[in-house]
Amino acid sequence: MSADRLKVLSAMIDQGVIPVFYHPDVEVCKNVIQACANGGAKCIEFTNRGDFAWQVFMEVTQHFLKADPSVIMGVGSIIDAPTAALYMANGANFVVGPILNPEVARACNRHCVPYSPGCGSASEISEAHELGCEIVKVFPGSSVGGPEFVANIRGPMPWTKLMPTGGVDPTEESLGKWFKAGIAACGIGSKMITKELLAAKDYAGVEKKVAETLALVRKVRGW
Fold it and tell me: In the chain, which end has fewer C-beta atoms inside a 10 angstrom radius, N or C?
């Protein structure tokens, strides 16, 4: 059963950085996600990238229901409603996509699961609002205008909560620019959970990098 929608949204915003991750090996996923949680990032976006990815997600979600119920599993790279429904049936607490799909929004709303669609214009963001999306993904973040795009959107629409993915680095300089522009949160993938850390199975290193990134977010936010 999915977690409470409002609690999930609050957790995403409070956390500030959502680790974005996929691996075909269930055990690697368990270790990486636990490392993220230990580092303070309880909300994780598992991307729907590989064959049978939903089966990996199901096993991982079932594991954390017992091992660490505080982990909030979400799913990313969702472009259609049937796939969203499949993941929600297997425990997805939030759904993220590279595009805006009204059918996905309706499917998520039926289950009171937050949906963050990928948008790259004021019109798309406004449509996402009309469809009930509280946090809108900016994608690809660097390609649509970066922090300047966020600031320009929030000028006429200051109520907008944006979450860029793509173009956000786990550095004080990058995070500072994005949060100063007014983002609510951001997604970071391989720049935080690097190929080198994964290859070495350095889960302590993953935990350290996540904790350092969250500390930077708190610093640039002034929290």
Answer: N
